[in-house]
Amino acid sequence: MSIPKGVLTKPVFVKLWESYPLFSKIIIDVGILIKYKTLKLTKIPNKITLPSRNIIFINNAENRGRALLISDGITQSRVTEFWGNAVETYKPSLVLDIGVNYGECIFSTTYEKETTIVGIEANKYLIDYIERSRKQHANCHQIDIIHAFAGEQEKQEQAFYIDTHWSGTSSGVQISEKNSIEKAKVPAISVDSLFDQRKLNNQRLLFKIDVEGYEFMVLKGMRNLLNNCSDILGIVEFDSRYLEKAGVDLDSYLAFLDGYFEIKFYDNNNQLKKLTSSSFAALKEEFGTDHVHTDLILSLRNHYDEFPELVS
User: Fold this and answer.
1) How far is CA 228 from CA 167, 205, 222, 223, in A?
2) C-alpha 53 chain-centroid distance
3) Which residues pair with 298 in a beta bridge?
4) Which superfamily does 77-311 belong to?
5) pLDDT per residue over 172-198, tens digit each?
6) Which of 19, 34, 92, 245 has its CA 20 to 30 A from that of 118?
7) Contacts 24+ apart (CB under 8 A), 34-42
8) Domain edges within the chain
9) pTM above 0.85, yes or no
10) 3-state DSSP assignment of residue 55
């Protein structure tokens, strides 16, 4: 007996968690019991060895950490597969993971010795686990973890809503009214504030953004990178419900992306397709739903001809 693999993927389980939190907790506990034959925290691991043999540390009492234990550290398989292929084939010189969570993306692979690697995470409860994972990583001295909220502008304080029961739905906007939501204050930064514009010209940038509706603000806060890096490849979560709750006009967002990138998205069959019209109506038509959850692949030019491994 085991939990079907698809149940613990991010979009499926987050919807289940939002609608049926108690039932979802039972699913997690059953998965832990099946895998470890116990529910005692002292007997449940607090770290996961990823397929790359790299290690991430997790909170074994927190439900997303437990979901990662059940799924061997992979709940977003297309993101981690894309990331590993991109690092190996595209060979970035600058790497950004914005919305690190437990680090199953940033720590999923090994990087070139000269690569600059930056992770940004706003949830204070995750920083200790991320740092422990960083110290175990082969590129530990190249990885800089920043506890901050990434947005369009720098601010001394930014409200951040932490879901203490499921860290993956923590956000800069209060997505839920559940009792598990804790309001915190964190410093806000723009990605551009971290880098000297004069040193960007020869950079090959690889980035991931997964910040529960604030992706547009993050991208607007990294215009210097987008304008000055010599090459760019990225993967960005697109969840229309979270984006709209954050006050984002979806057509304006897609038009912004279209101004910089070739945009591809994963369809219902998990295949990459080119977005031919930068309108949300076109995206809804592709999925046949009013709300769209997918991942967008963004590139300055057609990397798919040069690097077919990225979409294999």
Assistant:
1) 33, 10, 10, 8
2) 20
3) 234, 263
4) Vaccinia Virus protein VP39 (3.40.50.150)
5) 877 666 678 899 999 999 999 999 877
6) 245
7) 34/1, 34/2, 34/3, 35/69, 35/70, 36/69
8) 5-70, 77-311
9) yes
10) strand
